[in-house]
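In the current project phase, we have settled on a layout for protein records. A sample record is reproduced below.
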Amino acid sequence: MVFLVLALICGAVLVALFPPFQGDDESEHFFRAYALAEFQVLPQAQGEAIGNVLPVSLTVAVSNAALERLMFHPREKFGLADLRRTLAVPLQPEIRAFCPMRAGAYPPASYLPQAIPMLLGRLAGARPLLLLYAGRLGNLACWIALVFLAIRIAPAFKWVFVLTALMPMPLALAASLSADPVANACSWVLVAHALHLRSDRTDRVQRKDLMAWAALLAVLAWSKVGYALLGLLFLLVPVRKFKPAVIRIGSRSWTLSPGLVRVLAFIGLCAVPLALAGLWGALIGTVVPVTTADWSAAAGTLLTHPLTFIQKALPCGLGYAMSLIGVLGWLDTRLPLLFYPVYALALLTAAVLDGHASLQLPARSKLLPGLVATIILIMIEALRQLGMPLPGLIHHSKVVGRYLIPAVLPTLLLLYPGRESRYRALLPRVLPVFLVGALGVTLWRVLARYYLP
C-alpha cells in the first residue's frame, strides 16, 4: 500500500511536471507508440534510415515544445507560451511524411501501454500533446499494476522491491513514454515469482506457474531481449517442487523424475524468448539488414584484450550508480550529490534486514542471481564499448544506468539474510518516511530544473 499510494501520487505529478518530450529519447518513443497506434508494427526503410510514415503534426509538436532549447541546457525553462504553442498543433492525420526513428527497430511489447491510450485518443481526434499525456498515463498505470503484483507475490524482500521501484529513475521512466518500464516491471515480477516458487508458501509447481513464466519471458523477449537472461532464475525452484510426469505413447508409458521434469520445463521456457527474439530479428531483417562482421571483429578484440575492457569499464562505475538511482530528463538533471549514497545505503540496509522465515536462500543458491546480474552488467558494458546497435538488444554509446535496473534485485539477493532479522520490524516504520522525503526531493528538483528561475 505504501508503494501504491506513493507511486500513484508522485507518478501522476511527474507526468504533469515533466515538459513534453523531456524524457530521455521521449520524442522517439512518441513516434514509435503512435506508429503502433496506427497498427504499423514494422518500420519502413528509406535509404539508411528506418521509420514510419506519420502525420507531420507530430514532428511539429515536438519542435514547438522547445525540445532543443531545453535539452542539456539547465538554465532554460519551460513556460506557458511553450505549452500553448504545443497544444495549438492539431493532429491533421491526412498530412503525412516519412519520420525517421531509431526506436522503430524495437519490438512492440514495450509500447502497448502507451499505444492503446494513444489509439483511443487518435480515434477521438485528440491533439498530439494530449496523445503524449495519454500515453504517459497508460505507461504509468501499467507499470504500477505490474510492480504492485510483484510486491504482492514476493514472499520476502518486499521493501527492497518498493525501494527499487521508487528510485527516481524507474519512477520517472514510468511517467514518460519510455520503453523501459514494461521490461523493468516484468523483470521484477519474474524475480518475485521465482522467490514465490522457491518459498514454503507453494507446495508444487503448477501448470499455471509455467504459463505465467512463459508469458513474462515472452514480454521480455519482445521488449528488451537481453533481460530474458532472468529466466535462469527458474533454477532457484527446488526439485522437490516438481511432480513426476508420465508420458504415454500407445501402450507404453515412461515416468519422468522430478529432476528431469524441471530440466525439460527449463529448456522449454528458454525456447520462448529465443524463438520470439529470432522471429523479431527475422522480421526486422526484411526491412533493414543486420550485419555481424563488425560485431565479430569488435567482440574478438574484447575477448583477446580483457584487461583493456575492464580498464574502460571501471571509470563508468560511478556514472552507472548515479544514473541508475536517478539522473532525470535527458540525463541532464541530477539530484543532490548526497542523495545517491543515502539511497544506496537504504537499499543495502533493507536487503540485509528484509528476510522472511518462509524463504530460505543458502549461499550456494545466491550464486545464481549474482551470476545473472553479472552477465547482464557485462553484456551492457560490452555493448556500450562496442557502440554498435542491434535491434531489440540493449545498447548505448554512453553510460546509462537505467539499463541496469532489472539487475538490481538479483544483485541485492546476494545480501539476503539467512534468517529473519529482529530489526526487520523497523523497516515499515522508517522506510515510508524515508521514501516520502526522497520523492519530495525528486519532485522539487524537477520543478526547479524546468520551471523555477
Remarks:
- Residues 142 and 425 are 30 Å apart (CA to CA).
